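From the shared-data thread, chain only:
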Amino acid sequence: MDIIAVSSSPKSVAPPFYNHRVVDVMKMILERSSLSAGCWYPHAYYQALKEKGQNERLQWLQDRDYFFHGFLDVKFFRHTSGHATSPTGKLTEFEIQEGVKPSEAMDQIFKTLALVDCSNTCQMAQYQVIREAIGNEKFDHLFAGRLIIGDYMNPKNPLRHFLRPCHDGSHKILLALKRFREGVINDPLLGERNLLQEPAVIPIGARVVFQNVGRYTSKHPVGPSAGFNVIYLGEDSYYAFGISSEPVTARAINTYLMKAFNAPPQAPEHLGPKATNWYNNNRYRFEPFAAAQVKDFSKENGGFSPLSGKALDKELIDWIINTPIEELSWEAVISFRSSSLAESQKQS
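Structure, as tokens:
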């Protein structure tokens, strides 16, 4: 059965609590998993199947490299294309199949098996809250043929337009930036940002990022712990898919990341044919790093990324709720978002 009951009525979620509701949905995602359903990291599901002796299912998934690039029900989703640098040509990123209703696709995620990563689960929670707020009819109208669950930085990901950046204004690095550069920075991922025009606090329900040290992928080319997208719960507490189903602190996340780096390189036994071939052909590049260790995690810039906050845009969701469906289009959403951002900049 579904873990989340959704109404087509826009009264499902009270407007002030959109981001708080993200926390609730993320909690349900983390709590619900079995060998037949729920969200799993691909490598963790491989280990679970191996331990339970479910060799037929394991082999079927491995032959298709699903333990490398993830899996969602292929009747509802397909992998995005254009990832030439990936060993399999695919990443853990999915787009909705043509002719599928987005609301039904979301239902299917929560009813069946999903081999996904931390970014995927954060986006599932955010999409679900948008859906609850605006109702199935408007959700299907706006996201049909458009829904993507994957990279936050993918310019085609429609969720980007429903999120506003925020940052930790108390972080010492950002305090210095605001003091000496008037808050204007060149974000390598988002381009120019004026921190004075953004919320200087990470709200409950926002997605933030914890990074491992930059050398992680050199030692662990197929490891899952290069970083984690997590949901902030307030008071130094986070939901971190892939680490724990319970809330964890920043210190616990950093400790997990450091231990993951210092562990022996992850064996490639879970990989399928294409990924295994890539690994064997490139083994010489990784072996020199096999004994590498991190002693001071923070000095190598591991840990919390203070600029990484992404929270649901209340104004945009409220506007969609109050706009008749016949007046709703994707172009109208983009236009409203642009006007809203421009107005915010004027007020600041």
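The mean pLDDT is 89.
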